[in-house]
Amino acid sequence: MKEESISKTARFQAPDALRGLIIILMALDHANHFVAQKHSSGEYWGGDFPEYYGALSFLTRLVTHLSAPGFFFLMGMGMVLFTLSRRKRNWRESKIIQHFILRGSILILLQLFVVNRAWALSPRGWVLDTYIGVFFALGGTMIIGSFFLWLKPPYLLGLTAAFLLSDAYLPLDPTMWGNAFSIFSRLSSVPGGDLALWVNYPILPWLPLVSYGMLFGHWLAEDEKKSYQLALWIGVSFLAVFFILRAANGFGNIRPRAGESWIDFLNVVKYPPSLTFILLTMGSNLILLWGFSRIREKLAPALNMLIIFGQVPLLFYVGHLYLYAAMGNWLTPKGTSLPTMYLYWIVGLLILYPLCRWYAKLKRRQSIRSLLQFF
């Protein structure tokens, strides 16, 4: 294989492998909800702290925290790589922006009319009229982020820092939990709500992860070896700053720890993502990205399942929700233990893999103008 071919393959295998890993961790979280029915209530900026049934329960939740920030980061990276490739094909800037506006709008519509129907199949019932989940925020940040594509890396770096610091210096006040907020505030920045509208993923708090992904996309296109080495050192630095801020228990945490145990230390605010949540999860994701980039070609087959899942995240996401919802309703209507849930989770992955592999091959055979490129 030519050096150029190896370089191109390695460049895209590492992000695909990371995406595949975080998507199967996300599936673990949702299997916990549908099959075991032992999912925590959520790590919100106010209200009660989530309760766990011991160390395994907490760790099952903790590892899945890598998923959401990883999705936004990789989406931003993918937007830049897509843009650079289309510019080489002489696409106009307006056409590129229109492409991402359409893709973002599709994600929002999928949230409202496809994904929410899957959540409505929860074995214990689903009482929310409208739920705003991760697809809504991914679509919204994609639409907004499409207008950042013309920014050079130094400006993207400054924009990311500004987003992060604004969230950290102007956090939500936990004593305001339960107060009424406008629909615009809910959709843009304030998680929570009522049975008519419940928001877990407002758009604005997740923007810095998309803009940072865009920045990394430029680094990757310019020098892949250097970019992955940067991922390692930035990841380690993020984790170091996380431990400092978490120990200080003030700035960057949104709300203080509930206690002094190791679970309380690692139980960070996700809704909206606190600075400590971002540092912990993105530090881990960046180190994993570097690790995947170091996998030599002879070991690549071992990552095949992750890469396949990472190449078709939309199909996997929709498919796994309905699959685990069916398992929960038909096989474990009263829930089950966490160890047993892990077995169901693995069975679900084995069922989804052939479908995802077939769809990945189908997409690779399509032209860049195919409608399948949107899914």
Topology:
Elements: H1 3-36, H2 55-64, H3 67-88, H4 93-119, E1 131-132, H5 134-145, H6 153-169, H7 183-188, E2 192-193, E3 198-199, H8 207-222, H9 224-248, H10 262-266, H11 275-293, H12 304-311, H13 313-330, H14 338-364
Parallel strand pairs: 1-3
Antiparallel strand pairs: 2-3
Written overview of the protein:
The chain is mainly alpha-helical and 375 residues long. It has one domain (3-374). It is 66% helix and 2% strand. It has 14 helices and 3 strands. The chain has a 3-stranded mixed sheet with strand order 1-3-2. β2 and β3 (198-199) form a beta hairpin.
Helix content: 55-70%
Order of helices and strands: HHHHEHHHEEHHHHHHH
Calculate the terminal CA-CA distance, rounded to whole Å.
Answer: 30 Å
* Largest sheet data: 3 strands, mixed
What is the number of helices?
A: 14
Strand ordering within the main sheet? 1-3-2
Find the structural class using helix and strand composition: mainly alpha
How many structural domains does the protein architecture include? 1
Spatial shape: globular
The share of residues in extended strands comes to under 5%
Compact description:
The protein is 66% helix and 2% strand.
Main attributes of the structure:
single chain; 375 residues; mainly alpha; 3-stranded mixed sheet; 3 strands; 66% helix; disordered N terminus
